[in-house]
Amino acid sequence: MRPNRWNRAAVAGLAAGTLLVTALPVHADQSSIGAAPLLRADDDRDDDRDDDDRNDDDRDDRNDRELGPGRDGVPRRPNVRWSTCAGVRGNGQRLFAHYGVLARQIEEYGPVTCIAGGSSGSITAFFHESIWANPDVHRCDDRRCRNRDRDARTALMLKSVIGLVDTGVIADVALLAELVQNVIDLDIEALLAGPTPQEGVDALVRVLRDLGPLINQDVITLLLTSPDPVFHATDIIDGLQKGLNFVVDDPKVFLRTSVLDTDAFAALLGSVGSFYAAYGPADRDGVSAWIDACARPSVGLTWEETAALPADGGETCGDQFGRLFNEYRERFATEGGPNRVDDPVGWYLPAFGVTGVLTGDAVAEWEAARDAWLAAEPIPFEPDFGDVGVGWWGNERELRRMDRRLDRRNDDLGSEQFVPLGQQAWREVLSSSPAEPGFSPGVPLASGAVSVGGWADPLRVLPLDALRPRRTITVNRRDGVGGFTEQVTRLLGATDADVEALYSPTDPTSTFYLGLDRADGVWCTNWDAPPASDVDALFADGYNAPLITDDRRLLRPRNGYENVGSDVVIPGCTPGVSTLVQRTSSSFAP
After folding, report:
1. Which residues contact 575 (CB under 8 A, 6 or more apart)?
2. CB atoms < 10 A from the CB of 289, how many?
3. pLDDT exceeds 70 at position 70
4. How many CA atoms lie within 13 A of 269 on its CB side?
5. Given the DSSP bridges, would you call strands 143-144 and 139-140 parallel, antiparallel or unpaired?
6. Is 363 in contact with 449 (CB distance < 8 Å)?
7. Fewer CB under 10 Å: which end of the chain, C or N?
8. Which residues, other chains included, contact 174 with Cβ-Cβ below 8 Å and sequence gap of 6+?
9. Using CA atoms, how far apart are residues 310 and 226, in angstroms rounded to an integer?
10. With 0-12 CB in 10 A as exposed, 13-18 as middle and 19+ as buried, what is 305?
């Protein structure tokens, strides 16, 4: 039985613009007399469903060839049936490890033309699709690139995301840590607890105003107009300090006004995506010359090593990239241009955003609790876990295919929670999925659901596997599902049994176990080990991570990568192996 099936149907209908009401089937008791004919009838129905699946696939494949904008030099949208699909697990500010894994995967095995991510993984999926949309990734000297040249060019672009740190663009989103430090330096908490607490409120407002355009103006307005500004200032600071450590111990994490302007954050990410896709004022000749000089020599190298390679004009590959990006950024700010964040999700290749969602009665309960928090009169927010789902954005046909096959073939709780959110713009994804509890309240979506962050279904494997791609890989980390994810799940009403059914690494029926088991390859990083500020170490951890696989193709890396095998046993990455260390929720991201 799918506990939130009614809500899923309603959300899917709203996403398509029409509310669809369907009757739920009634299943006969298979233990009763006459079970054998019933089983034969079920087998016949399954055969018919297989035929329906094949017919639907044929129609979808024909339609897929007509999708996509057809940019000059960019291939037609890849067919997911011939793709390697990657499920990317979120990891907060440690997302630079993702690019190491994807660069290595592409150098050794060819393109990843299908990708899904939630939380910071949704940013990775967005950048990856943006890179695929760049004509100069596919064109070499006015001709279509050979496969290995295209793969080297794609991998170089992925590695260069690490180089964004040196351009200063990442500093624009580091303001939350700066805010907390200012709160500490100015002793604002003591002011709020002192004899004239309004002094603390005023000090917080001044700090927020000084931090730049990514600060949410709504939080300043709230502090200036609140019926109880001391309550709101104190609660916002408490939530922010815990959020930076991924501590979630109070349902108010779903209610507090965000300090970060998530729409401005999405637009900033979109401008970076526009650079990678060569939208607007792109220096196509300059970027093409950089790729020509640096792509093939960078195969097998980290970004740190690649950045030191010689490029044209006496520059290094790192310096040339930084110059090209900063010049583009300045032109984009003055001349404007299309922002990639306004493209539909999955426009150039099968790409998907993932987030936890509230549906059904939980939406109204959240709205009431949010209004009460804004009025400084908080009330409990205790949703029924049956109204909590895992929302997926992407191509409508592919979402329908996922939904149909998960419903027919899978009995795990994570598959039961699947909620299609339609093919919205990337702006909706990037302003909600990375907005995890502790940093942002729930975010209402166009479908009628409310996003509560991209922590849900960390491996992303089973829905991708439902599309029947050539192979499915997952970008994972050792030691299983983090305390943050479990704590958020429990705050949303999950029982111990629900948590086990979703995240157990040893229960063969759990969603996490099945994801590890069905993936053709599991990249097992240790991205919690390096400091979050050491982006080169994070990239290197992903780039040199072990790949656990028994897939014959994946066991034959084209460049001889050695850290591949089927006999690797790592807790949290090998199905059936229990995690050896119990972690606290403050030690890591989702």
Report:
1. 505, 508, 513, 516, 517
2. 17
3. no
4. 29
5. antiparallel
6. yes
7. N
8. none
9. 57
10. middle
Element containing residue 121 per DSSP (H, E): helix 120-132
* Cα separation, 132 vs 154, whole angstroms: 7
| Both tokens assigned to 25 | 């089937």
User: Which residue carries 């982006």 as its tokens?
Assistant: 535
Cα–Cα distances (Å) from 374 to 147, 364, 365, 377, in that order, read 55, 15, 14, 8
Q: Tell me the C-alpha to C-alpha distance, in Å, between residue 191 and each of 33, 187, 204, 206, 257.
A: 75, 7, 10, 14, 21
| Distance in angstroms (rounded) separating the CA atoms of residues 463 and 152 | 29
What's the sign of the alpha-carbon dihedral 136, 141, 142, 148?
negative
Amino acid at 52: D
- What are the beta bridge partners of residue 351? 115
Q: Which two tokens stand for residue 501?
A: 């059914």
Average pLDDT of span 397-411: 96
pLDDT tens by residue, 484-499:
999 999 999 999 999 9
Of 251, 191, 260, 253, the C-alpha closest to 220 is 260
Of the candidates 463, 564, 559, 565, which has an alpha carbon nearest to the alpha carbon of residue 115? 463
Distance CA 192, CA 179 (A): 16
**Sequence-separated (6 or more) residues with CB below 8 Å from residue 510:** 412, 413, 500, 501, 502, 503, 504
**CA atoms of 234 and 360, how far apart (whole Å):** 32
Orientation angle between helical segments 535-543 and 96-109, nearest 10 degrees: 30
Average pLDDT, rounded, for the chain: 87
Separation CA 555–CA 547 (nearest Å): 9
Rounded to 5 degrees, φ, ψ at 102 are -65, -40
What is the rounded CA–CA span in Å between residue 380 and residue 390?
Answer: 23
Phi-psi region of 419 (alpha: psi -120 to 50; beta: other; left: phi over 0): beta
pLDDT 10s digits, 359-382: 999 999 999 999 999 999 999 999
Q: To which residue do tokens 């607890």 refer?
A: 193
Q: Which two tokens stand for residue 291?
A: 């790729």
Burial 70-96 (b: 16+ CB within 10 A, else e): eeeebbebbbbeebbbbbbbbbbbbbb
Read off the pLDDT of each residue in 188-201 and give the average, rounded to a whole number: 95
Burial of 567 (0-12, 13-18, 19+ CB in 10 A): exposed
Please name the residue that has the structure tokens 């302007």: 261
Dihedral angle computed from the Cα positions of residues 273, 174, 209 and 339, in that order, rounded to the nearest 10 degrees? 0
Q: Where are the beta strands (DSSP E) in 381-446?
A: 388-393, 418-422, 443-444
Sequence-ordered strand ranges (E) for 65-152: 84-88, 114-118, 139-140, 143-144
- Helix residue spans in 309-425 (DSSP H): 317-335, 361-374, 396-409, 413-416
**Helices marked H in 431-482:** 461-466
pTM for the full predicted model: 0.87
Q: In degrees, to the nearest 5, what angle opens at C-alpha 20 toward C-alphas 357 and 425?
A: 50
Q: For Cα atoms 398, 353, 261, give the angle at the middle one, nearest 5 degrees.
A: 150
Q: CA separation (Å) from 274 to 108, 129, 305?
A: 27, 11, 26
Structure tokens at 429: 């994804």
